[in-house]
Amino acid sequence: MSSSPLKIVVIGGSAAGPKAAARARRLDEQASITLIQKDPDLSMASCGYPYYIGGVFDDRNQLICTPAGIVRDPNFFEKAKRIEAMVLTEALAIDRTAKTVSCRHLPSGETRVIPYDRLVIATGATPLFPPVPGTELAGIHTLHSLGDADSLRAIRDQRQVRRAVVVGGGLIGFEVCEALHLAGIQTTVIEKTDSILPFLDPDMAHLVANHVRANGADIITGNGVAAFLGEQGRLAAVKLDNGTELPCELAVVAVGVRPNITLAQAAGLTIGEQGGIAVDDYMQTSDPDIYAAGDCVECTSLITGHKVRAPYGDIANLQGRVIGQNLIEPNSARFPGVTHTGICKIFDYTVGITGLSARQARALGFDIETATVSGLDIPGYMQGKLLISMMIAERASGRVLGFQCIGPGDASKRVATVAMAIRGGLTVEDLGNADLPYAPPYSLALDHVIVSAHVLENKLHGRLHGLSAAEVKQRVDSGADCTIIDTRGPQEFEEMRLGIGETLIPLGALRGRLNELPEDKDREIILYCKISLRGYEGAAILQAHGWRNVKVLEGGVMAWPYPREK
Prior knowledge:
The chain is α/β, with parallel strands linked by helices.
């Protein structure tokens, strides 16, 4: 006598839920699988929302269809996957003793109780709002659901909004900023902290901010929203903490998300310290028959071992796949954790990160060394584009802890490479000898990642004493007693220069002009060039001639985020 089919219920139909359901179906044709989704849509490609709003593509169905172009609606789930997908249906409660989920169909009000053998919670997250007056005004939006994307796309198409404010200077905030800018809307990004993109270190964030401003959008940092101001129920302005009022007809709030844990909490499941549902490597909650994934859970940092939240679509899909397998073959698949890898497009810049920033690493107690490097992604004769990166490693072990890469060049390949190095616990030396693909259309002979590792290795071994742009600026502003040398050629110096009290001594002339340098061999000398390779070579020359306090401005002129003389 055959046993009855396994009953699987999945709550949440965005990313992790459908992935778990589809994977379970592939592994068990007989299982009964029910998907409960509060929104009208299923399997939404939410990372595509800003590009739909900005008019990069016009067909909304592209956000909810398969690679073959079939819309993932309840009919698709029924016919292609034999999964009952109930949309516009809210899960109300989980009864762990009876092993049932009660839910309500929102349009009709009809309720239903669905039994389960194994349950998946993929309830996602809710956008946070600043706790200030005026959030109920018309004209204030978030970008979280497909409905939000529809509303903002309609605003773009109507061409009536002239001024917008984006609250929050993170990834989503800047993707929205670009989308609104493409629609011809004058946009200002407001960030409460002192620096945009808080996962970047300040010099890197400063470079991105310069790029955003150069493209016509504005940024205000160190200033939060005190109130939304309205006229006749509609948004008219945003008031900042310092009292400034910015007139606008549209505000998009992108200050982060809160895990949706109400159902899990009410069912008595364990909630972690970071506010997400606690799960193990199998994505199992404190109830072995209930799994959870996506924005509502906590996972493990593969670098620190600490619990973290990682509300990203790709992570949700990976976790959903693990759950789908474990529903059918318990404890056969694991999700070990995350390295916090992310990327976004901000106008013509790519901004990519993996692992820890220098600031995060120091706050966690790591003793670190960093290296900032500027260079092209591919050779100049192949129309190579600029990349600026910072690599972070643990001093004692040389283990790579983080990497930030920005610029118009191909940062995504470099971030992916370092993400896997971090995942594998590799050192700077390992990366410096990596056998990466090379051909001029794709890379330099020594790829940007390898050069970054070489520079960091030189610093770890004391062969290079680098200074960040911020450290050099600090010395200049405080009138520190140091000599600054620009080792570029005269033509480069004419075209672009920092104006920080530097003396031009081209690298080729340096050995013949040593008599112009300070007699005091302990006086600090700072060298740089366009990307600081010539600066490094110049420093080696001076050290060989007895100067003992020679430093190099890391990343050179190209990584200087402050105003220049020319």
